[in-house]
Design goal:
The protein is an alpha/beta fold. It is built from eight helices and five strands, in the order αββαβααββαααα. A five-stranded mixed beta sheet has the order 3-2-1-4-5.
Length: 202
């Protein structure tokens, strides 16, 4: 577990005091918002099973979700909807969602560990002092925690969307481009929460 704190410790040693991890979920789906979360964890806090959200089962992510919220010094979730993704671009939307999440932290963060290798798109950028970490959700406890909050929050949103648009069965695929989802799109056409810019090959 200790190696998951390396980058937080390096940021502390550089003089930063409130270090958050930040990650997003939902860059690839054909429908729904892109979500982001930012989390400040007390250094060395034990959260059993903490890992990159993509390596965890849905059941494990759901179990960790309230534990992370309880143990975090601060956490926040933000999103950018499908309409804005279409109006800008997915990279800009991801950056905007991450910065929105960072901005909502209380206490605020003076440094952010960002998952991935991008910190700006055409119309949005990470403005908080930061460091990008490729595969950061496997390297940093704070980013791993953020990845889980972002993923679970987005999944919950898609399950609610399934109640409003039952014909698309969003609860099964969460908006990703599965065979079932493409079948539903061909049958019913896009809904108001579909990303039109992602549907060029229909």
């Amino acid at each position: 577990m200790n190696d998951l704190w390396q980058y937080e410790k390096e940021a502390l040693a550089a003089g930063h005091t409130n270090i958050c991890g930040c990650d997003e979920a939902g860059a690839g789906p054909l429908a729904g918002p892109v979500y982001a979360a930012a989390v400040i964890l007390p250094l060395g806090v034990e959260i059993d099973g903490l890992n990159d959200s993509k390596k965890l089962t849905e059941k494990k992510r759901e179990a960790l979700f309230p534990v992370i919220q309880e143990k975090a010094a601060a956490w926040a979730v933000a999103w950018v909807d499908a309409r804005e993704i279409d109006e800008t671009d997915i990279l800009s939307a991801r950056m905007k969602a991450m910065q929105l999440a960072i901005d909502q932290l209380e206490p605020g963060a003076d440094f952010a560990l960002i998952d991935g290798n991008r910190d700006h798109g055409r119309s949005a950028a990470i403005l908080t002092p930061h460091r990008c970490l490729v595969k950061g959700d496997s390297l940093s406890a704070s980013i791993a925690a953020a990845s889980i909050l972002a993923k679970v929050s987005r999944d919950h949103w898609m399950v609610k969307a399934a109640e409003e648009y039952p014909e698309y069965q969003f609860q099964k695929h969460k908006g990703y481009g599965t065979k079932l989802h493409y079948e539903m799109l061909r049958t019913y056409g896009p809904s108001p929460i579909h990303r039109r810019s992602f549907l060029k090959n229909l």
